[in-house]
Amino acid sequence: MDKNSLAGTVTPSEAPDEAEPESKRDQKAKPLTACLAGVPNAGKTALMNALTGGSFHTANYPGVTVTISRGRTRAEFGPEMTLIDLPGVHSARAASPEEELSCQVLEGRHPSIHPDAIIAVVDSTQLERHLKFASFTARRGKPLVLALTMMDMLARSGQSISANKLAEALGVPVVCVDGRTGWGAEEVISTLRREIEKPVTEDSALARIPDEPVAAYREIRHLLDLSGAIKKSRPLVVAADSMTERIDRIVLNRYLGFPIFFTILVALFASIFWAAQPFMDFVEWGFAQTGALALRLLPEGALSRFIAEGLIGGVGSVAVFFPQIIILFFLMTLLEDSGYLARGAALVDRPLSRLGLHGRSFVPMLSGFACAIPAVLAARTIPQRRERLLTIWIIPLMSCSARLPVYALLLAALLPGKAGRAGLVLAGIYISSLLVGALTAGLIGRFVLRKQSSSMLAMEMPLYRKPLIKPTLRITWSRSAAYLKKAGMPIVLISAFLWLLSNFGPGARQPVSESGARPALVTASDLDHSFAAGIGQTIEPALKPMGVDWRVGVGLISAFAAREVFVSTMAIVFHVADDGENQQAGLLENIRSATFAGTSQRVFTTSSILGLIVFFFFSLQCLSTVAVVKSETGSWKMAGLQLLFYTGLGYLLSSAVVQGLRLVGIE
């Protein structure tokens, strides 16, 4: 069989041989499909990245891969092959929807995914446990290749593995790989192609390993001992003396664990402000120059102002905060890849269990700092339905990346020229979201979803690893690009729409001209007589307890489509010029000096800014999240109740903060 047949591609001039078996014709008619399967934390998704050149999300804790990821092999690896990254599985007896999904695919029960071959990813530092699951894949009747990962970690313990001897003992090909660097990736594909050409056999030693756990581990140990595949270059390092154990003695210490954990989180979120500032200045300068260029090149009129202020200025007012989001993703990826976040889950398991949650709830809660949608999906890995629903319920309280531009703007207005203090306040907001979320879960669990049975956290602690910069940057950009795709179009459309609403109005609302001419049905208008003013002034009575006027109300309404749009809305309704000057400084100056109509009372005061922060902290202003919650829970009732509860709670608490501060003399 030549390479073209392996790729599954046949040119129109190549008619199939009538005597050729039908299975080979099908193989030529479509690209081959291979599944990556293995135990969580085996390095499966990192290998997927290396094989496809993609940027699939990988992390050192279970529950990250909650859906099937697809990709195509890299061009330099030869004819194209489809790869499917299956969620991690601990055993063939699926304990979660993700494990059941993987087992369906591997056992041929999935309605649409039928792999031609399997790549079983095995952690070389935990051969016995991972080979137990690999034996399950060997009995599927598919061409199989074992990909040995974590070879660098094995070397740290003074051991090495002979892939040839292990392959001879198990009866299946074995390839050593490093998904983070790409070493061995091409060999995996070439070996898999050779296996596909051979007749499939289920009579390998790996396939004959019994299903019963004790007997299976005994047989695996026997095979490994006979093979001589494992060599020790020096006496085995005592576990208590290993680097991982030494670090864990500190970071998981009964007294030091939590202070270290919160110190790391505070440092992470506080650094977002000072580290991003030079990049923010550059982005702001770029958009300001682009807007000024548009005004110079285009004929003067409404169209040029629409492009410069509505499109470029509106998008630029949000894009200036994008460096902070990139840094947030970068630092979180470093923590994930190092293996520390699994320790975070272990640390918070006991306090979370007292509140009715599960240690695994920490993973989706922390994922919520990036975006609530994948966080809701990550809650699938929580085994108990009650704890899964509780986790989904509190995820909107996590301060997602969409809130970051809003917090940054409000804190800059509240604490001008004090980036250090603003960073500490931001860190406090993020940590408070974890604490408030846990407290909310405790109250709901105590009075609504009562606990019926106790659950236990069983979680693998990965070895600490030094994060590699290239994969970390690739994953960071993947997350950031996903954020841009999700938020970019709503920001552009809503910014453009709001500019039109704030610069045009109904003719009936316009002042009568001196000539007495009747205004057109829709005409250019100042802000006070625009469509936006009409909408905002309708809801203004409800905004008075929050201490803001109708212009802020327009921003709050627009934020339900995308929270980030609140910033661009402020830039538009306060008519911040994008003429090459410092746009952010102009926006901050305008909102600090904004007053209520006909008075000298300022709109943005200490109390009203804190009230807005509280509102955005609690309010569920993401309709996409509402739709995902409905999909995951199968109930519009819960999704709708969550929307009303958090938005109403945000309004009430925001009003209470504003009125309470004013009662004690803080305007």
Which tags fit this structure?
single chain; 667 residues; alpha/beta; two-stranded antiparallel ribbon; 27 helices; elongated; disordered N terminus
Protein architecture, described:
The protein is built from 27 helices and ten strands. The protein is of the alpha/beta class. Among the domains are: 31-237, P-loop containing nucleotide triphosphate hydrolases (Rossmann fold); 487-510 and 525-663, no CATH class. The strands form three sheets. Strands 2-3-1-4-5-7 form a six-stranded mixed beta sheet, sandwiched between helices. Strands 6-8 form a two-stranded antiparallel ribbon. Strand 2 (69-72) and strand 3 form a beta hairpin. Helix 7 packs across helix 9 (213-227). It is elongated. The termini are far apart. The relative contact order is 0.08. Residues 1-29, 58-62 and 235-241 have low confidence and may be disordered.
Structural class by secondary-structure content: alpha/beta
Record the strand order, biggest sheet: 2-3-1-4-5-7
* Beta-strand content estimate: 5-15%
Mean of residue pLDDT values: 78
Number of DSSP E strands: 10
List the helices and strands and how they pair.
Layout: H1 3-7, H2 22-29, E1 32-38, H3 44-52, E2 69-72, E3 81-85, H4 97-106, E4 117-123, H5 127-138, E5 144-149, H6 151-156, E6 159-161, H7 163-170, E7 174-176, H8 185-197, H9 213-227, E8 230-232, H10 243-251, H11 257-297, H12 302-319, H13 322-338, H14 340-354, H15 362-367, H16 372-378, H17 385-394, H18 404-414, H19 419-447, H20 469-503, E9 504-506, E10 522-524, H21 531-543, H22 550-558, H23 565-573, H24 583-593, H25 606-618, H26 623-633, H27 636-663
Parallel strand pairs: 1-3, 1-4, 4-5, 5-7
Antiparallel strand pairs: 2-3, 6-8, 9-10
Helix pairs in contact: 5-9, 7-9, 11-12, 11-13, 11-19, 12-20, 12-23, 13-20, 16-26, 17-19, 18-19, 18-25, 20-23, 21-22, 22-23, 25-27, 26-27
